[in-house]
Write a structure and sequence with these properties.
Length: 203
């Protein structure tokens, strides 16, 4: 399989993950599916924009770069070292590294948010973080400590878990493209031309 074809496949996989990451982060601004009256009552990690900045903005550029390789004629480059495919594949590794950092950022923010738990109403007018070191994950009875917003614990847990999974998958895909891009840089875009064979023709 051509390294360019692999990159295009990865780019196509990243696009829906970008959309899901963006939507999940936006939904976090509406805890329990409700509009909150004071933004200070939102969990701190929501404002770090892990899904919007990390899994979406910093990921959309690598995804588009990977998809842009579809214009390359994989086997049409045989015998023509000036076609620029190696340069294109090298560029894709740079964008893959950027995407990896973005996905890693989203992954870390989500992990911290899950461990910390949501910010919620603890008493008549006291807002804070009632959970410690993820203890609520194994003891659902602790969820009642959050009096408001309604269903904020499962809401935040679900959405941050989605972002955690998305970030993990994106990191894996970008890591694959780093390796794939380096192979494309060293050996050319198409294995049918013979890896590192100097473009002497199909094997």
């Amino acid at each position: 399989m051509c390294t360019g074809g692999c990159a295009r496949c990865l780019g196509g996989t990243l696009i829906p993950l970008v959309v899901c990451g963006f939507v999940a982060n936006v939904l976090l601004f509406f805890p329990g599916g409700k509009v909150i009256d004071n933004n200070d009552h939102l969990s701190e990690e929501v404002w770090y924009f892990g899904g919007i900045l990390g899994s979406a903005v910093l990921m959309i550029f690598p995804a588009l770069v990977f998809l842009g390789l579809r214009n390359n004629d994989c086997c049409g480059c045989c015998g023509n070292e000036s076609c620029g495919k190696r340069c294109a594949m090298f560029t894709s590794t740079i964008f893959a590294a950027i995407g990896f950092l973005g996905a890693g950022y989203s992954f870390i923010i989500s992990a911290v948010a899950i461990n910390k738990g949501p910010k919620c109403l603890l008493g008549e007018s006291t807002w804070g973080y009632p959970f410690q070191n993820g203890n609520y994950l194994s003891d659902k009875d602790l969820w009642r400590l959050c009096q408001a917003p309604a269903n904020v614990v499962p809401w935040n847990l679900t959405l941050f878990s989605i972002l955690l999974i998305i970030g993990g998958i994106q990191m894996i895909l970008c890591a694959i493209q780093v390796i794939n891009g380096l192979l494309g840089t060293l050996c050319g875009d198409c294995q049918c031309c013979g890896c590192c064979g100097g473009g002497d023709g199909p094997v």
